[in-house]
Structure of Endophilin-B2:
Amino acid sequence: MDFNMKKLASDAGIFFTRAVQFTEEKFGQAEKTELDAHFENLLARADSTKNWTEKILRQTEVLLQPNPSARVEEFLYEKLDRKVPSRVTNGELLAQYMSEAANELGPETPYGKTLIKVGETEKRLGAAERDFIHSASINFLTPLRNFLEGDWRTISKERRILQNRRLDLDACKARLKKAKAAEAKAALWSDEVDKAEQELRVAQTEFDRQAEVTRLLLEGISSTHVNHLRCLQEFVESQATYYAQCYRHMLDLQKQLGSTQGVIFPGTFVGNTEPASSPLSSASLATAAATIPVMPTVAGMPSAGEAAISLDDVALPASGTRKARVLYDYEAADSSELALLADELITVYSLPGMDPDWLIGERGNRKGKVPVTYLELLS
């Protein structure tokens, strides 16, 4: 009991001495031992690493899970050391709604079929997102958290100890200075000077030892940067894989919708292939195309659903043709198409059964299919 009381009294005395030293330093009434420039640079570098790691960690969490309530829930599960329950992604939820809508509105209708196709793609996108979140959490977020909750806590603890050792050292220096000043007045203080010098030597040794421990930990920040660099590269790889999967899924969906477009939207122009710089919208193309008379069926000419139309056998109709200005250069993909040069004028008309995104174009004695989105139809 007496031992514990003495220890508590000793600890309280040390705490009070440190508080007095710290306060006097703040008011400029006491000297302070300064660390060398290299040590100060290590401290600043460590603080900067900690601050930016926290910001990157928090913003990556927002990127992977935009819902703040869900982030709080996941944080609580981690703190309780419990497995985070599986959560449906937004893409998977959208896929579920589209599937249910298609079943209720009619899965055999054009709208229902399209809902099913888009829903299947959204489900794949949601699964890809889930894989990306899982990979990023393990390979990127976890190492950052481990640094903040492990290495950085150790560094902070040793820095606090070093601060206390520095305060003890400076307090010993102040006591020795006072003892020497008193010794100059009376020889009776010689024992106090010896005691103060002995305490200073002990404090200096403890400070030097703690400074070395802290220095080694701070220099380990370089290894932390190397580890975070590797984790960052893995994060980029995961993100690139995720976006590549999304691109492939959407490309497949576009092809599926494009193959059924003529069936779902007969007689209208849909600007899927319209370049971003084209001044014509899909609606304006459809309106313009509606004013182009369809060439009447010519005797002996194959109708829609039969063999492909031979352009060489099609004569220019006497009426129902229009002039069109070419907006952009176009390179013919095969012999059935007509190559175009920007700003030239050509004659265009439509044939029965043609894809609504195409017209027949003629320039001199050459003719071929031309895309509507590359043309400005003239009145």
In short: The first strand starts at residue 322 and ends at 326.
